[in-house]
Amino acid sequence: MIDPNLIRSHFPIFQHHPDLVYFDNAATTQRPQTTIDAVSKFYSQRNANIHRGLYSLSTDATAGYESGREKVKDFIGADTVQSIAFTKGTTESINVVANSFLGPRLQPGDNVVISAMEHHSNLIPWQQICLQKKAELRVIPVDKSGELGINNIGDFLDSKTRMLAITHISNTLGTINPVERIVEIAHKNQVPVLIDAAQSICLHPINVDTLACNFLVFSSHKMFGPFGVGVLYVHPDHMEDMLPYNYGGGMVTHVDFHKSSFMAYPHNLEAGTSAIAEVFGLSSAIDYLNNIDRLEASDYVHGLAHYFKERLAEVGTAVVVGSPENCAGIVSFLLDDIHPHDVATFLAEENIAIRAGHHCTQPLLEQMGVKATLRASFSIYNTREEIDHMIAVLKKIQKFWA
Amino acid sequence: MNDRLKALYQKVIMKHSKQPFHFEKKIPCDHIVVANNPVCGDNYNFYIDADTEKIGKIYFHGFGCAISKASNSVLATLISNQDWRDAYQYCNAFLAYLEHKDGADQKPLDPAFEAFSAVHEFPSRMDCATLGWKEVKKFVETHLKKEDIRQ
Ligand SMILES: Cc1ncc(COP(=O)(O)O)c(C=O)c1O
């Protein structure tokens, strides 16, 4: 059983802000004390640069950093630790795949397929490489409920498709895409698949071995870990195809003035000094997640979203945007014709943190026929009482506006 | 509702946002000035008639929150039919008043500014209130620079 109050006690933000109702978990989660301690402990007890020093502090930091890689590997069920590269986050991971993997093999007339519900981060890198290479970007549409027509996905793929990049969970509508089926369909067409797991990595157990995706990307800050670090998983089949992304120290085997040779993936992608303390923090966040039952946790959070939608029906003409059958803990909604920013300002005065705007999915909202929404996104420290509070405030706002 | 919110969403603002002045896509017109906030997706167009002497009627249309709509409505009310230099002065004065440039107790150039006096307490809403004024100010500035060069 998820005990939100016990979990709350692990997150010091709630001691500093006892009245905070934090419903902006899709933007970034809060961090447990253990994550914060891991970062600070690294700096106070183990701080040194990695991969360079011959003294024990540095070899110890290196070992800790590399064991973080090992931990990520186990967390997502990868076969080999060599598959795991540390990046700055989801956005950088996707840019790396678009430029270091896809770019060199994309020919004029080829195509790349994404869905209409992608975050700008899983849209623009593909859009730009397609523009550069005179390739076509194909977009699988969403229906009114905010779902992809899964049966039509095959229609978008052909012998010229070089990549299918798709999100596991929509950060705006909460739609959970059937990624296993999608990978299957893509592989039948010999198309590699990148899964954007930014919104799913925290509470949805993912196993890249059974999912069989070619690339998986996510950010530490959306899974109780620190900002500034993220992961790129590359299937062993493609590791040799990953070209360097940034050039510099720490990624070379030999350098002379006129040419250099580079280390193999993943080290060829980690030029310069990495976010070392943050990897220690991420590692600790994974320990935290391994200590909870994540299936129960995601059930709990989906239950909160369901409860919120039920209660929202009481609030006059409030409408939920999108109604996917399989929905995560993310709900987009509108309160009458009151602009989302105005509603969010009122909620903020009651210490309720939710997001208003387009959530970096402008083309999706356009398809759904709205310009901006309010978005409540839940996590395991949230409660039904908090939702009740928000509903009461929404009713007050409605009254004020009438 | 607490007092801060009451101060932000005063009756004047609610009235302007519900019944904005000159809220209409007025085409044809001499100039269209776009006020676009990529962060939140708010988007307005100002439809402006003007000759070398003065600005004519200003209409506006688009999508945004109550604060931005009210602020643009007040802009359309105050700047319509101003001569260019007065328009520039109004824009400057409105922005300075909101940003507390000359201190918090600064006298507004126009009493209509006072409806926005609480925006300063909501830093995240500052852009909503100032975006249209900034864009129109730029437009007026460009005209005045051309004028200066011509003379
Ligand atoms: C689905 C999805 N993809 C990508 C991103 C980008 O993540 P980051 O900003 O951590 O790179 C986000 C963040 O909001 C997201 O929700």
Shape of chain A: globular
Distance between the termini of chain A: 42 Å
Global Rg of chain A: 22 Å
Unreliable residue stretches of chain A? none
* CATH class term of chain B: Alpha Beta
How many separate helices of chain A? 13
Give the class of chain B from helix and strand content and strand pairing. Answer: alpha+beta
Count of strand segments of chain B: 3
* Oligomeric state as shown: heterodimer
The helix content of chain A, as a percent range, equals 25-40%
On the 0-100 scale, what is the average pLDDT of chain A?
A: 96
Bound molecules: pyridoxal-5'-phosphate
What Rg of chain B, in angstroms, do the CA atoms define? 15 Å
Order of helices and strands of chain A: HHEHHEHEHEEHEHEEEEHHEEHEEHEH
Distance from first to last alpha carbon of chain B: 55 Å
Q: Which percent band covers the strand fraction of chain A?
A: 15-25%
Strand order, sheet with most strands of chain B: 1-2-3
Shape of chain B: globular
Order of helices and strands of chain B: HHEEEHHH
At the fold tier of CATH, the topology name of chain B is Sufe protein. Chain: A
Please describe what this structure looks like.
- The complex is a heterodimer of chains A (402) and B (151).
- With 402 residues, chain A is an alpha/beta fold.
- Helices cover 37% and strands 15% of the residues of chain A.
- Chain A has 13 helices and 15 strands.
- In chain A, the strands form 4 sheets. In chain A, strands 2-8-7-6-5-3-4 form a 7-stranded mixed sheet, sandwiched between helices.
- In chain A, helix 3 (33-46) packs antiparallel against helix 9 and helix 4 crosses helix 9.
- The longest helix of chain A is centred in the N-terminal third of the chain and has 20 residues, at 56-75.
- The relative contact order of chain A is 0.17.
- Chain B has 151 residues and is α+β, with helices and mostly antiparallel strands.
- Chain B has one domain (3-144): Sufe protein. Chain: A (Alpha-Beta Complex).
- In chain B, 45% of the residues lie in helices and 17% in strands.
- Chain B is built from 5 helices and 3 strands.
- Chain B has a 3-stranded antiparallel sheet, with helices on one face.
- In chain B, a hairpin with a 4-residue loop joins strand 1 and strand 2 (42-50).
- In chain B, helix 2 packs across helix 3, helix 3 runs parallel beside helix 5 and helix 4 (84-98) runs antiparallel to helix 5 (126-150).
- The N and C termini of chain B lie far apart (55 Å).
- The mean pLDDT of chain B is 93.
- Classes of the chains: A alpha/beta (402), B alpha+beta (151).
- The A-B interface holds A 338-342, 345-346, 348-349, 356-358, 362, 365, 371-372, 396, 400-401 and B 1-2, 4-5, 8-9, 14, 39-43, 63-67, 122, 124-125, 128.
- Pyridoxal-5'-phosphate (PLP) is lined by residues 26, 89-91, 119, 121-122, 167, 171, 196, 198-199, 219 of chain A.
- Pyridoxal-5'-phosphate binds next to helix 5 of chain A.
